[in-house]
Write a structure and sequence with these properties.
Blueprint: H1 41-50, H2 63-71, E1 76-80, E2 93-96, E3 105-107, E4 113-116, H3 126-138, E5 144-146, H4 158-161, E6 171-172, H5 188-200, E7 204-206, E8 213-217, E9 222-226, H6 232-244, E10 255-262, E11 265-272, H7 278-297, H8 304-315, E12 318-319
Parallel strand pairs: 2-4, 10-12
Antiparallel strand pairs: 1-2, 1-6, 3-4, 3-5, 7-8, 8-9, 9-11, 10-11
Length: 321
C-alpha cells in the first residue's frame, strides 16, 4: 500500500494586532499562530476588559448627555464635529443611540457616517472602541456597515478625534425612522429591525431648561432621570440635605426615589404621576437646580435626619456600568 502523505496545514496569513477579531476562548486564534485564542491574543483582550475606564466620556462636551444617550435614551442623534476636516466624500458624521442590526457604524450610500453608541464593546474603554469604529467608518466604502472588533491598545480615543469646542446637541426621536432616509429602498432585515426597535422604544423627552435631564413615559408612571456632573459623595450629601428638608421633589405627587451610577456619573431618579409631562417638570427642575446648587455649596456636617436620608438614598443606589 502506498504511504499516506502527512497532511500539512496551510499557513494562515499573519494579521496585525488591530485586525484580529475577538473569538471564543478555545477557538484557534485568528492571527494564524495555531494556538488557541485564550493562550494567544485573547490574553491581551482579557486584560483590556479588566482595565475599565471609569469615566470614558470625561473631557467631551456635554459628558452627561453622552452618558444619557448610552444608557437612558432609546432613539436620538447628534451631529459630531471632528478636529480634522472630514475626508472627501464624507458630508457628515452623526452619533446615534443605536443602529439597525446593532451595527457599530454605517457608511451610508451618500457617504455620510452613522456611529452607534449603545453597542457592546470589546475593551474596557468605550471611548477608544468608538474612536476605532469611527476611523474605520470614515474610510469604508459607501453603503457598508462596520463590524465590531477589539480596538488597538494604542489607538486614539474620541477625545483626540472630536472638536472640544464643537456643539453637542442631542435630538431625541420618537422612533428610529432616521435609520432609513428612503424607506422603500431598505432591506427586509432593516425593516424588521426598525419595527422591533420602534415597538420597544419608551417615549422620552430631553428637558430644555437644565442639562442632561430626560423625562420618560412608562405604563405605570413617568420618570425623570437626570445625569449630574458633580462628585458622587458631594452630590449625595446635597440630595440628603434637600430630602430631609422635604425639598427634593419636583412638585405634587413626585418624589426622589434614588439614583444609579453610570460611566462615573450619578443619575438621580424621580417618580412622576402618569399625567405629568416633560413640559410640566421644566420649571420645577430649574427651581430644583437652584436648591441643589445651594446644598452643594454647604460644608456643614449632616444632621441625624440628613444622615438617615443619605443612607436611604445610598441603599437604593445601583450601578449600571
Amino acid at each position: 500500500m502506498a504511504k499516506k502523505r502527512p497532511q500539512t496545514k496551510a499557513k494562515q496569513p499573519q494579521l496585525k494586532d488591530g485586525e484580529i477579531p475577538v473569538v471564543g476562548a478555545r477557538e484557534p486564534c485568528p492571527c494564524g499562530s495555531a494556538r488557541r485564542y485564550k493562550a494567544c491574543h485573547g490574553r491581551a483582550a482579557a486584560h483590556a476588559v479588566t482595565e475599565l475606564v471609569r469615566r470614558p466620556f470625561e473631557g467631551l462636551p456635554r459628558e452627561g448627555d453622552w452618558v444619557a444617550l448610552r444608557e437612558l435614551v432609546p432613539a436620538a442623534t447628534v451631529e459630531l464635529k471632528l478636529k480634522e476636516s472630514l475626508p472627501e466624500g464624507v458630508p457628515s458624521v452623526t452619533l446615534a443611540t443605536v443602529l439597525p442590526m446593532a451595527w457599530p457604524a454605517l457608511r451610508r450610500d451618500d457617504g455620510s457616517v452613522l456611529i452607534g453608541l449603545q453597542n457592546d464593546t470589546a475593551s474596557g474603554d468605550i471611548s477608544r472602541d468608538l474612536a476605532d469604529t469611527l476611523q474605520r467608518a470614515l474610510t469604508a466604502q459607501p453603503g457598508t456597515p462596520i463590524q465590531g472588533r477589539r480596538a488597538p491598545a494604542d489607538g486614539p480615543r474620541l477625545q483626540e478625534l472630536l472638536d472640544p469646542e464643537g456643539a453637542f446637541e442631542p435630538v431625541v426621536h420618537s422612533g428610529f425612522e432616521f435609520w432609513v432616509p428612503d424607506a422603500e429602498q431598505s432591506t427586509p432585515e432593516v425593516t424588521a429591525s426598525l419595527e422591533r426597535a420602534n415597538a420597544a422604544a419608551i417615549p422620552t423627552v430631553k428637558l430644555s431648561g437644565v442639562d442632561a435631564a430626560y423625562w420618560c413615559e412608562t405604563p405605570d408612571k413617568n420618570h425623570l432621570r437626570w445625569v449630574m456632573p458633580y462628585p458622587e459623595e458631594q452630590l449625595l450629601d446635597a440630595l440628603a440635605r434637600l430630602h430631609a428638608a422635604g425639598r427634593s421633589s419636583l412638585g405634587e405627587g413626585t418624589r426622589l426615589v434614588g439614583s444609579f451610577r453610570a460611566h462615573g456619573l450619578t443619575v438621580p431618579v424621580w417618580d412622576l404621576p402618569t399625567g405629568v409631562t416633560a413640559d410640566d417638570v421644566e420649571k420645577p427642575a430649574a427651581e430644583f437646580a437652584e436648591r441643589l446648587a445651594t446644598a452643594l455649596a454647604s460644608d456643614t456636617p449632616l444632621t441625624p435626619d440628613e444622615r438617615r436620608a443619605r443612607g436611604g438614598l445610598t441603599n437604593r443606589q445601583v450601578t449600571l456600568s
